[in-house]
Amino acid sequence: MTPGAGSALVLMRRSCHDPEDLTFYLAFAPAGTRLEALARVAGRRWAIEEAFAQGKGEVGLDQYEVRSWVGWHRHMTLAMVALALLALTRARLFARSACPRPTMTAFKKSRGLGPAVAADS
Questions:
Q1: Helices (H) and strands (E) in the chain, counts
Q2: pTM here?
């Protein structure tokens, strides 16, 4: 099913965990957009809401007083850059922690030093 140009669709999603739980979305999409793509985009809503909640809690995304558009824009830009930096740092930290740290025994084995050498030193 592909929507036509300028058409509005009502998208209905069923929960995987509770088939009785239905969610409805009003969707606007360009011509040729597949129904699967609309459903996937609607599912991304939760990740976006989590990112905004994280931004409010960690970098003060909601801590501003609007006096001018320029001030609001600068605050939002700085907060979003800080949130992106934190996300990147967090992703790198978790990627590193998945790798086991090398031990001294593994280092000595890689250098050809056996247990006898390790016991003498």
A1: 5, 2
A2: 0.52
